[in-house]
Amino acid sequence: MRRRLMVLILLLATLFGTGSAAAHTMDVTAVLSLEEGRLSVQLLDPYGAPVAGGQVSAVVRPEGSRRGVRMALPEMAPGTYVGSLTSVRGTVAVQVDARLGADLYRVTIEGLPAEGGWSQIPWPMDMVELRPFPWGAVVYGLGLAVLGVAATVALVRRPAPAEQEGRDK
Predict the structure, then answer these.
(1) What is the tens place of the pLDDT at every residue in 54-106?
(2) Residue 96: CB partners within 8 Å, gap ≥ 6?
């Protein structure tokens, strides 16, 4: 029984350990373009395939200013997110945030002309926020399972109380 339980615990630890590490190794590239007041961001994986299903937002800030224009970029095609930009002039800094599942990727580019004319600039995105695997919940669940099994085994193997005959109290 102990051997089976130890094998199960080692198997679960191995599966959860390698699964969580493998889930956070994706490199994402953002291809930005600004033409005619439209900011377009295309997210690509390392093989050039579009990364769809993310939530993408951008902050466009004029150079020398702390205040920027925030905008959500809805997905127009798989992996392509587009928003309109009209109120910014001069040179700008663009910060693009992409939430893919539980992870947040970010790229910040400074010194771009707000009038547009630049397109298809690929930039690697940095992983900013990584939601860690909930090891505490796994350990707690395994502890409860071990306690449940131990209590069941103890109750099943407990000897029956001896009967006492003919004794008065």
Answers:
(1) 899 999 888 888 888 889 999 999 999 999 877 777 888 889 999 988 788 99
(2) 30, 32, 41, 56, 57, 58, 106, 107, 108, 125
- Residue 162: DSSP 8-state: P
Rounded to 10 degrees, the C-alpha dihedral 32/34/40/45 comes to -10
Q: Which one, of 101, 88, 84, lies nearest residue 28 by Cα?
A: 101
**Main-chain dihedrals φ then ψ at residue 129, nearest 5 degrees:** -130, 130
- Rounded CA gap, 66 and 68, in Å? 6
How would you classify residue 48: left for phi > 0, otherwise alpha for psi between -120 and 50, otherwise beta? left
Whole-model pTM above 0.70?
no
